[in-house]
From TrEMBL:
Its EC number is 1.14.14.3. Signal peptide: none annotated. This is Alkanal monooxygenase alpha chain. Coiled coil: none annotated. Transmembrane segments: none annotated. It is an enzyme of class 1 (oxidoreductase). Keywords: Monooxygenase, Oxidoreductase. Residues 12-260 form the Luciferase-like domain. It comes from Occultella aeris. One of its GO terms (molecular function) is alkanal monooxygenase (FMN-linked) activity. It comes from the Bacteria.
Length: 342
């Protein structure tokens, strides 16, 4: 596999009403997210991705942001990492996604999943959703996803009114607006090897984060690489009609000036961290903060980055657009060429 990478950023879109934050309001978070997408495109980055969290001072409603960023740019991929499908009406999701994708010129890359630990107890119930009898909330997320995938593919299923307000095309109707090709640009955020295999069965791209369930006690990047291998092996057993993509996320901060030294010198986690999430043991990947030459050597040994085609750089968005653009530029110019990523 080629070592060249699609390189983008992943922002959690935090805001904090505090004097030290460059992002103090929801408006700041949204507008700066658009500005950072524009800056990233100008720098030659390949993607702008946004985390979605509900009931939190973070980005919660992705499609207005994706559409606005798409209208301000022309080349860069715009996506999510990830949308919690427990909170989603699949048909409304397909309508919103289709509209945003068309506005963006078919550049959306939508990461979805069953979600992460929540800010509130069973928050999806407040959105009007509940698991069916015998289902877990994860089952509900998968059920929502399977329906969304069918309608994103253009499935015609709705019986037309015999006396409609406007003329209908013949036959059953589909969700509109329909954006051709979007179905192949859906990614699933998988936390385990089994979920990665399910992702392949469903014909979705694989999005693997900076944590996964600990299944072997091995270093994070080794477990993540094995997850990618399991995904690709399962994909090969199916005929989905296209080549899948795989992304991994990393926190990478080249130390090239005094700002970098003040923020990150000595802050890189030199080792993985093991802890529990919702009662399950998980492994969290290390972060990287060092001078470019040292970073190149450290990253050269990351098996999961080597196996993936897309690298998402998690950015500290509360430090502002200019600084985060500087981080992206530093990776693209001082680190990526030395690893063959550019």
């Amino acid at each position: 596999m080629s070592s060249r990478k699609n390189i983008g950023f992943l922002s959690f879109g935090h805001w904090t009403p505090h004097p030290t934050s460059a992002v103090r309001t929801a408006a700041d978070a949204l507008l700066q997210s658009i500005d950072l997408t524009v800056a990233a495109e100008e720098l030659g980055a390949d993607g702008a991705y946004f985390r979605v969290h509900h009931f939190a001072r973070q980005l919660g409603s992705p499609f207005p942001l994706l559409a606005a960023a798409g209208a301000r740019t022309s080349r860069i991929e715009i996506g999510t990492g990830v949308i919690d499908m427990r909170y989603v009406n699949p048909l409304a999701f397909a309508e919103d996604a289709g509209a945003a994708d068309l506005i963006a010129g078919r550049r959306l890359q939508l990461g979805i999943s069953r979600g992460s630990p929540e800010q509130v107890v069973e928050g999806w119930r407040h959105f009007g959703f509940a698991p069916a009898e015998g289902e877990t909330d994860a089952d509900m997320a998968r059920r929502h996803t399977e329906l969304a995938l069918r309608v994103l593919a253009g499935e015609e299923f709705a019986e037309p009114n015999p006396r409609p307000m406007f003329p209908n095309p013949p036959g059953l109707l589909r969700i509109e607006p329909y954006s051709e090709g979007l179905r192949r640009r859906i990614w699933w955020g998988a936390g385990s090897d089994a979920t990665a295999r399910w992702t392949a069965q469903q014909g979705m791209n694989l999005m693997s984060s900076t944590l996964k369930f600990d299944e072997s006690g091995e270093p994070f990047h080794v477990q993540q690489r094995k997850q990618i291998d399991a995904y690709r092996a399962e994909w090969a057993e199916h005929d989905h009609g296209f080549e899948p993509r795989v992304s991994v996320s990393r926190s990478i901060f080249p130390i090239v000036d005094d700002r970098d030294r003040s923020y990150f010198l000595g802050s890189g986690d030199r080792a993985d961290q093991f802890s529990r999430i919702d009662g399950t043991r998980a492994v969290f990947g290390r972060s990287y903060a060092d001078e470019p030459e040292a970073l190149i050597e450290q990253l050269r040994g990351d098996e999961a980055i080597a196996a993936a085609d897309t690298l998402l750089l998690t950015v500290p968005n509360q430090l502002g657009v200019d600084y985060n653009a500087h981080v992206l530029e530093s990776v693209l110019t001082h680190v990526a060429p030395g690893l063959g990523w550019r």
